[in-house]
Write a structure and sequence with these properties.
With 485 residues, this protein is of the alpha+beta class. Helix content is 40%, strand content 14%. It has helices at residues 7-26, 41-44, 62-67, 97-104, 144-154, 185-192, 227-230, 239-254, 264-276, 325-329, 339-343, 346-352, 355-373, 377-394, 403-429, 436-441, 460-465, 467-479, and strands spanning 53-58, 75-81, 84-94, 111-115, 130-134, 162-169, 172-181, 198-200, 291-296, 299-304.
Length: 485
């Protein structure tokens, strides 16, 4: 056989290209090439937030489902999303305090979870295993969660995708909800690639308990000492998984070598947004919950979740609430919780003891102030979204508020964020007190927010006033009236 004189050259070139491609595949993310799972099909479908989508839930006994919603048991239904039908989907109510209050007030509009693989192994919506439908409870603006997730995404924190959906039940109008990607397998693949780590949703069983694990405190080396974490694992965990996480919490507890156990940079960006939006139904609040915990190779990070009580409105649900808008808007960014709480939140407190991390935290605040609020992005996002959803809010048969209340809440939310940004800038510049102690020493120094009425964002009076409307909508579904156009 006659050998072509360039055969060896071609073979060497082919081998070189193959090796180069292998390197590109291994280092794709560092080279700016997105993960194959970074843009799943569902992201461009349901979570295209430039329009309002449609979801119809076909469930014969909707009245029975509403009556037993507090049990949070899945039932099977057929779901049609933007005209595409999915059978054998699990649906249940979601929430804790919000679910309890909706039940106590005799209301019918619950937040929902839709689980596509509940009854069908591998069932999914274009790659998505589960989503939630947020009811905008105590959020007359319908915008709190949407805006916080936008801020988190802007700051580079892995956040759930979300979009607005017009929900119908058996073809009858039910209302405007925020569809949100649930942090499970699809979320993990999208954000961390196919070789993703472990995901947990730490939560307390009883507020009267110590709940040290929810606070991410190291207890001991026994996994049984962390039931509120490991019993709430999103994926099956091994003994090795548990030991890695416990070791990370142990390192965190020492306050030393934190970057060997914590994704410090990402956590600082998370807390920047968390503190700005004054969300105390969270890790920095007395409950210490409403977050997801991600661990990979012994490194932990905290991920955002649940913001209907953000922007200072969690105080409205407290026994002895802080209602003074001057206190809330000027809440200090350096000590965003009372000392007792702060000392029991090592993921925040121990990081802030390091001068380097503390300076970086302030740097991220400046970035958020300058590039998100100072650039006009916030106002554009708020008003464009308001314009998009306004016609749907106006005809929402189960809304917790009137259309006029919605418009007032949007204006109030814009003013809250404007004043909060002004206060944060003043704290960063040293013009305003940035710690609780400094505020006690210099009372009254800060932004004047006395004209604000935070209850306009949503309060318990709204729950009293919407009962008859929601019951009428439920009756219409039962009778097959009020079919959507």
């Amino acid at each position: 056989m006659v050998k072509h004189p360039l055969t060896d050259v071609f073979c060497i070139a082919a081998a070189f290209l193959a090796a180069l491609m292998a390197v590109v595949l291994m280092m794709g993310e560092q080279l700016g090439i997105p993960k194959a799972s970074a843009s799943p099909e569902y992201a461009a479908r349901l979570f295209d937030d430039s329009r309002v989508h449609t979801i119809d839930i076909q469930l014969e006994d909707w009245s029975g489902f509403v009556a037993s919603a507090a049990e949070k048991e899945y039932v099977l239904c057929t779901v049609t999303i933007d005209g595409e039908e999915f059978r054998q989907v699990g649906v249940r109510a979601k929430g804790s305090n919000s679910l309890q209050l909706i039940q106590e007030y005799g209301l019918a509009r619950y937040s929902l979870k839709l689980e596509f693989d509940h009854a069908v192994d591998g069932g999914n919506y274009h790659g998505l295993d589960k989503l939630s439908l947020d009811t905008s409870f105590q959020d007359n603006s319908y915008l709190k969660a949407y805006l916080v997730y936008d801020m988190m995404d802007f700051m580079g924190v892995p956040a759930p995708l979300c979009s607005y959906t017009w929900v119908t039940v058996n073809g009858q109008d039910w209302g405007l909800f925020l569809a949100t990607e649930e942090p499970e397998e699809a979320f993990a693949r999208r954000n961390f690639g196919r070789d993703y780590g472990q995901l947990y949703k730490p939560d307390y069983r009883s507020l009267s308990a110590e709940n040290a694990d929810v606070a991410l405190k190291y207890v001991d080396d026994n996994p049984d000492s962390y039931p509120n974490i490991f019993d709430n694992a999103c994926f099956k965990t091994s003994r090795e998984d548990q030991q890695r996480l416990i070791r990370a919490l142990e390192i965190l507890s020492t306050g030393e070598n934190l970057e060997t156990a914590v994704n410090v940079d990402e956590v600082l960006r998370y807390f920047t947004v968390q503190v700005f939006v004054m969300n105390w139904d969270s890790y920095l609040g007395r409950t210490g919950h409403n977050y997801f915990l991600y661990e990979k190779d012994g490194i932990i990070s905290i991920l955002p979740w649940d913001y209907n009580l953000a922007f200072g409105t969690y105080a409205l649900g407290m026994t002895n609430p802080i209602r003074d808008p001057n206190i809330l808007i000027n809440y200090p960014i350096n000590t965003p919780a009372e000392g007792e709480v702060m000392l029991n939140r090592p993921l925040y407190h121990n990081l802030m003891q390091k001068e380097e991390y503390f300076a970086r935290y302030h740097q991220y605040f400046r970035q958020l102030m300058d590039q998100y609020f100072g650039s006009g992005r916030f106002e554009v996002t708020l008003r464009q979204t308001e314009q998009l959803i306004a016609p749907y809010v106006q005809r929402d048969p189960t809304a917790f508020c009137s259309y006029e209340d919605f418009r007032l809440a949007v204006d109030t939310l814009e003013e809250v964020c404007r004043l909060r940004a002004e206060s944060v800038r003043g704290q960063l510049e040293g013009k305003f007190p940035a710690t609780i102690r400094q505020q006690q020493e210099h009372p009254g120094v800060g932004v004047d927010a006395s004209h604000l009425h935070l209850e306009d964002l949503g309060d318990f009076d709204d729950l009293e006033n919407c009962r008859s409307k929601q019951q009428a909508a439920l009756q219409a579904v039962m009778e097959g009236k009020g079919k959507t156009q």
